[in-house]
Amino acid sequence: MVFAITTIVLALVNRKKVNYYMTYLKEYYLMNDNKSFSVNLYSTQKNDDYLEKENVERVLLTDKNSENFYEVKLENIVENNEIVSYDNKKFSKYRVDLKIPIETKDNMQINDASITIYYTSSENIKLSIGSIIFNPQKGESDIKVTHLKGIVNEIESKMILMGVGMDINNTTKQDIKILSINTLDERINVKNQICLLNNQDYTNEIKIKELENSNIVSSKLNFPIIIKKEEQQKLLLLLEYDKPITIQTLGFIIEYEIMGKNYHQFINPFQYFNTTSKKAEIVRYECY
Fold this sequence. Notes:
The chain is mainly β.
């Protein structure tokens, strides 16, 4: 198993003490009608007044790459018993439950998302949280996808998900023509060339080129792909990026055809690996 963790650490200073806050950047998928998500936030202060719901005036969700912002509902803040050590400090874990009141029928993505917590004391802290992917559409269920398995390689000192193996099962009484498979993350594309696999007897860390050229791959073909009725195909999807980014969780959309009619189905977001390499950013907040 490959591990890599990206962290953002913030310091909040007042006259009596310095508080440090840490978040883990991740992908938040809001599927179907779900508009709620939870952010794990770590503080060096137990029973932190800054993490008491009654002290919060409002929370804004912002996109670092645009001027867009959304006011989100703070539903709850819960302190857990978990203690995490980082940079010679002890952090207490809090869960911040949020709800985004966005009405949209279209897919939407916020990259480099941050939340800014505004307090009744007129103070505020800004925390990077990762990316948020909205997918309000509902799909069909003609295809059963099993045995998801990611291949992770180190590229430019980053752990990159390079490919995903999966078994695609046609559960219908008709042949299915797979027109395309793509990711739900706009930063990542599936290459048009697909590998058919004999098995999944490979490690998660195998070099993607080594796997492509091994006898595990029976053949390579382009879309569309025909899957006969009640049959299965073992596929390897090869991923490409505009620039290398470390993502742990990824969902897909399958566009397919049955008897001349087009459908789509979603593969729910799945976490393919964890991380251990830590990258910290410290921001100092002075409160008066």
